Amino acid sequence: MPPMKRRLIPMMASKQLRVRSKSMPSGYDVDSGSSPTPELLSIGQLAERTCVAPTALRYYDELGLVRPQVRESGQRRYAESAVTDVGVVVFLREVGFTLAEIGALVSGNEDHAWRSTIERKLVELEERQRRLEVALAALSHARRCPAGNPGKCPRFRAILDGRRGGLSLEESHARVHAGPERAETV
Fold first, then answer.
1. From CA 46, how far away is CA 40, in angstroms rounded?
2. Beta-bridge partner residues of 77
3. Residue 5, SS3?
4. Structural contact between residues 154 and 165, judged by C-beta atoms closer than 8 angstroms
5. How confident is the model over 64-119, as pLDDT tens digits?
6. Top-level CATH class of 41-107?
7. How far is CA 17 from CA 13, 14, 28, 32, in A?
8. CATH 1.10.1660.10 residue spans of the chain
């Protein structure tokens, strides 16, 4: 059989069809494939830039601490400012704030809310520091105690007796170390 000749059919010029999809960010230019809005970060990019796991970033989103600017095809997209927002959350966690306290701080931009929350946290941290100092003193004594075993140490037992009598660890420790002349006044 002889080869068939192909017949060319002239094509008519097609009209350009504008398509809008929910997955396209607003402002997306179909012709150029670019968006006039600044580039948004994926959750992976934000995680990489902040050294915070994507699971933690999702949790921060659930709590309202760091919100994505948009969702594209179900994926979170963050503004560049989210890098700073995550940094604030991480810093506040490192200095002792709970996620609930951070949520209260970042949801209200009022200076007095920040100041009062910081004041409360300072009081809490000072109390914790005082308790740690007592614990350090007790453990330092236990380490060098001549009794060898804190259970055989008369001072340690006196501190335990004070605790059983309703004194706080700090009060009991102070009473034992105050000496006999001050024990009654502490």
1. 10
2. 42, 70
3. coil
4. no
5. 999 999 998 889 999 999 999 999 999 999 999 999 989 888 877 677 778 888 89
6. mainly alpha
7. 12, 9, 15, 14
8. 41-107
Task: Give, in order, the Cα–Cα distances in Å from 150 to each of 35, 111, 145, 156, 177.
Answer: 70, 49, 7, 6, 16
The Cα-based distances of 102 to 41, 97, 107, 121 in angstroms read 23, 6, 8, 11
Percent of the chain clearing pLDDT 90 (strictly above): 38
pLDDT in tens, 19-42: 444 444 444 444 555 555 578 999
Distance CA 131, CA 169 (A): 8
Question: Can you give 88-107 as a three-state secondary structure string?
Answer: HHHHHHHCCCCHHHHHHHHH
